[in-house]
């Protein structure tokens, strides 16, 4: 991965962590961004956040394997 790819991965990772935190809080309190979800459905952003974080982790590991 070049520098631009690593910067984008870092930004995506931070965004994913924010969405994971929002989803964890939303499970109990609901969430309200530009949308409103009731308490049990408030966990939905965590799934999107986990998808982003997991994709970044896999891409990062794969890039290190291909460089070796």
SSE succession: HEEH
Gap from first CA to last CA: 12 Å
| Arrangement of strands in the largest sheet | 1-2
What's the gyration radius in Å? 15 Å
Low-confidence sequence ranges:
none
Largest sheet: 2 strands, antiparallel
- Give the number of DSSP strands: 2
Q: Tell me the overall shape.
A: elongated
Percent strand:
5-15%
Summarize the model shown.
The protein has helices spanning 3-29, 44-67; strands at residues 31-32, 36-37. With 68 residues, the chain is mainly alpha-helical.
Sequence-ordered SSE layout with sheet pairings:
Elements (H helix, E strand, L loop, with lengths): L2 H27 L1 E2 L3 E2 L6 H24 L1
Antiparallel strand pairs: 1-2
Task: Provide an overview of this structure.
The chain is mainly alpha-helical. The protein has one domain. It has helices spanning 3-29, 44-67; strands at residues 31-32, 36-37. It has a two-stranded antiparallel ribbon with strand order 1-2. Strand 1 and strand 2 form a beta hairpin. The longest helix has 27 residues, at 3-29.
């Amino acid at each position: 991965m070049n520098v631009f790819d690593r910067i984008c991965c870092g930004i995506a990772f931070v965004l994913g962590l924010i969405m994971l935190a929002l989803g964890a809080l939303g499970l109990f309190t609901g969430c309200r961004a530009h949308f409103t979800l009731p308490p049990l459905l408030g966990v939905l952003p965590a799934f999107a956040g986990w998808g982003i974080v997991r994709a970044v982790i896999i891409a990062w590991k794969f890039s290190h394997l291909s460089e070796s």
